[in-house]
Amino acid sequence: MHCWHSKATVPGSPDDVLELLTEPDAIARWAPIPFEVVSLDGRRLESGSRARVAGRLAGRSVEFEVDVLRASEERLELMAEGPISIDVSYTVLPTGSSSEVRASIAVEGSGLVGRVLAKATEALLAAGALRLSLERLAQELGPARAPAEAVPSVCLA
């Protein structure tokens, strides 16, 4: 399993950031991997809600079941299961009039197709997709105060 971490200081309060992190139309505008929502329990991501999303990865149509593990005042954690598993975590901390967003994505694939899709996803993340998504999130909130930093690392199981 490989993990990518990135952080950025973005304008707005943690509440403003969490609102964009949990609103499906906003997520589609800044997410590191393009997708569309097929179905969603409720109108936004909440602890315990489920969604089905679809997109393209490595030239293949893919669908994922997304379970929102936690959506709180300072954190969003979810698990996307499909041809690969994607664990996502966003932590939002106040920093005066702005917020620091710490993002982490872990990717794992099994079987031939899963390993190929996991490698393709890892290549996107290694090329800076997570950093760019935090920059787009910051643009949604207003002028960014600091650039996002992408730091790839290996997760320990």
How much helical structure, as a percent, in the residues?
25-40%
What is the CATH homologous superfamily assignment? Answer: START domain
Strand order of the largest sheet: 2-3-4-5-6-7-1-8
Helix/strand/pairing class, anyone?
alpha+beta
Low-pLDDT stretches are none
- What is the count of distinct domains? 1
CATH 2nd-level architecture: 2-Layer Sandwich
Provide an overview of this structure:
The model has no long low-confidence stretch (mean pLDDT 88). This protein is 29% helix and 46% strand. By secondary structure, it is an alpha+beta fold. It has an eight-stranded antiparallel beta sheet. The chain starts with a strand and ends with a strand. The protein has one domain: Alpha-D-Glucose-1,6-Bisphosphate, Chain A, domain 4, CATH 3.30.530.20. The radius of gyration is 15 Å and the shape is globular. It has helices at 14-22, 24-30, 111-126, 129-141, and strands spanning 2-11, 36-40, 50-57, 60-71, 75-81, 84-95, 98-109, 149-154. Strand 6 and strand 7 (98-109) form a beta hairpin.
Please outline what is shown here.
With 157 residues, this protein is α+β, with helices and mostly antiparallel strands. The protein has helices spanning 14-22, 24-30, 111-126, 129-141; strands spanning 2-11, 36-40, 50-57, 60-71, 75-81, 84-95, 98-109, 149-154.
